[in-house]
Structure formats: structure tokens, C-alpha cells
Design goal:
The chain is mainly α and about 290 residues long. It has one domain: Up-down Bundle (Growth Hormone, Chain: A), CATH 1.20.1250. It has ten helices and no strands. Belongs to the major facilitator superfamily. Monocarboxylate porter (TC 2.A.1.13) family. GO terms for molecular function: transmembrane transporter activity. This is Putative MFS monocarboxylate transporter.
Length: about 290
């Protein structure tokens, strides 16, 4: 409720540097994770679950009220539709964008959900697991800003494709090796590389919606696509938990339990990459012009 109203109007204020601007705006989510991961860990240890939730609620109130009072209004002089136009909904670009959002959201949260458990299985302490999650969020935040600048230079759709595809490759090239061999080096590398690559989608997807569907349709398409992303987040990690199972004995097995989760996550992100590539192609087809920078 706090995140999406800002997201719905922010792209209107930027044109040439829209990627960098959105990357900077959305980097706040990574900064929040960087700060909140160790904070929540300490609150849970010292105050318990109930007071941790109360403190987080008060933080939301303290941060949200000034934003609600100071946020800029929409630049549009006419009220924009909130329902997706049926002509847009029939386009392959729209269908593939929605499917990409569903699959990316499903796969995106799996490594973050199981990062503490996997770290414990490798032999790290719970505090170190929370620290690694914080590191991932910090890198993710920086990545959103960096990806925004790169997107303005080389094309927002191009950068989005590379970002999603690279996140899928990192899952199979680094996390899978860590699970198969039980080594810490590839796991640390994955925490950093995945934070770097996965941040691009969150920062760039709103800008590509504007480019593909136009600023007038942005509010309706963005609202629907993020609704679909919510559905993806709803089933991605729970299904991963079912695949992982309850563990045996003192914990999980890297080679048997977590490897299945890694293959599942990599498949979701790879499928999302193919959908994003499809959007890139069909958008050029609709506009009857191929541009290398798009």
C-alpha cells in the first residue's frame, strides 16, 4: 500500500534518465533490507516476536506519513484508466510481460527465503545467515541504481533481458555448485552476484512498461502486472518449501534437498528470461522497426 502509489506516478517525471531515476527510487527497497535484516534479528532475540512487529509497525507509520503528505501528484491532466484496455490485453507483449512478471516474482524470492537455511546447512551461524541476507540486499540496492544508468545508455529492454538471464545463470552456475559440493566460496559469490543481477528487474520493469505500452496505459498495465507479481510471490517460495521438505535428522541435505530447489528456481528465472526476450521481439514487431538500443 505504501510502495505502489509512488511507483505509479514516478515514471511520469522522467524521460531521458528514467532508468536511472527509477533505479535510484527503487534502491530504497534494498537499503531497507540491508538495515532491517540485522535489526529484526536483534529485535527478535531481545524483545520477541510481538514487540518486533509493533516496532516495525511504528517505523512504517513514522516513515509513511511524511511520504503521504509530500508525495507529488500525477502530472496527467486527465484521469488515466485503471483497467487494462482489451486491445492491449490481447497483445503478445502484454501476455508475455504478465507471464514474465509471474515467473520472475516466483523465482526471485526463493533464494532470499532459503538463504538463512542454506547458510546454516553450510555451517554458518544464524547471525551470519542474517548478515549474508543483509549483504544481498545492500548489493541489490546498488545494482538498481547501476542498472538504471546502464539502461539509459544501452537500452532499458536490453538491460532487462541481460539482468533476468544473468540471475538465472547465477543460480545454476553458483548456487547449484555450492549445493552439490557443499562449498562456501560459490555460495558467497552467489549471494553477491544474485543481488547484483536480480536488482535489475525490479528497477527496470516499470520503465519498460512505459516504453512498450506508453505513458497513458502505464497505470493500468503496471497495476495489473504487479498484481500478477504478487501471485507469483505467493506461490514461488511455498512451492520451494514443499520441494525442500522438512529435513531429516539435524537438518537438510545439500545434495538431495537443496539441489531440487535450485533446479526449480533456475527453471523459473530462465522461463522468465525467455518471456522478456519475447517482449523485446514482439515490441519491435508491433512498432515495425528494430532498434538495437531499446
Amino acid at each position: 500500500m505504501l510502495y505502489f502509489p509512488i511507483l505509479s506516478i514516478a515514471p511520469e517525471y522522467f524521460t531521458a534518465h528514467r532508468g536511472a531515476a527509477m533505479g535510484f527510487i527503487l534502491s530504497g527497497a534494498g537499503v531497507g533490507g540491508l538495515v532491517l535484516s540485522p535489526l529484526i534479528r536483534n529485535l527478535l532475540s531481545n524483545l520477541g516476536v510481538r514487540w518486533t512487529l509493533r516496532i516495525l509497525a511504528l517505523i512504517n507509520l513514522a516513515v509513511g506519513l511524511p511520504i503521504a503528505l509530500s508525495a507529488s501528484p500525477s502530472l496527467s491532466s486527465t484521469r488515466r484508466p485503471t483497467l487494462v484496455n482489451i486491445a492491449i490485453a490481447k497483445k503478445p507483449t502484454f501476455l508475455l510481460s504478465a507471464l514474465a512478471a509471474l515467473l520472475q516474482a516466483s523465482g526471485n524470492f526463493v533464494p532470499l527465503t532459503f538463504l538463512p537455511d542454506f547458510s546454516l546447512t553450510l555451517g554458518y551461524t544464524a547471525a551470519t545467515g542474517a548478515l549474508l541476507l543483509s549483504v544481498n540486499n545492500g548489493v541489490n540496492s546498488s545494482s538498481r541504481i547501476l542498472m538504471g544508468f546502464v539502461a539509459d545508455r544501452f537500452g532499458r529492454q536490453n538491460t532487462l533481458v541481460v539482468s533476468v538471464l544473468a540471475s538465472a545463470v547465477s543460480v545454476w552456475a553458483l548456487w547449484l555448485v555450492a549445493a552439490a559440493e557443499g562449498t562456501k566460496g560459490p555460495w558467497i559469490a552467489f549471494v553477491v552476484v544474485y543481488g547484483l543481477t536480480a536488482g535489475g528487474y525490479n528497477a527496470l520493469f516499470p520503465t519498460t512498461i512505459t516504453e512498450v505500452f506508453g505513458i497513458q496505459a502505464y497505470a493500468s498495465v503496471n497495476g495489473f502486472v504487479y498484481f500478477v507479481r504478487g501471485l507469483g510471490a505467493f506461490f514461488g517460495s511455498p512451492v520451494g518449501g514443499v520441494i525442500l521438505g522438512e529435513g531429516k535428522g539435524n537438518g537438510y541435505s545439500l545434495s538431495t534437498d537443496f539441489e531440487k530447489v535450485v533446479w526449480y528456481d533456475g527453471a523459473l528465472l530462465l522461463a522468465s528470461s525467455l518471456c522478456v526476450i519475447g517482449v523485446r521481439g514482439f515490441d519491435a514487431w508491433d512498432k515495425k522497426a528494430w532498434r538495437w538500443k531499446a
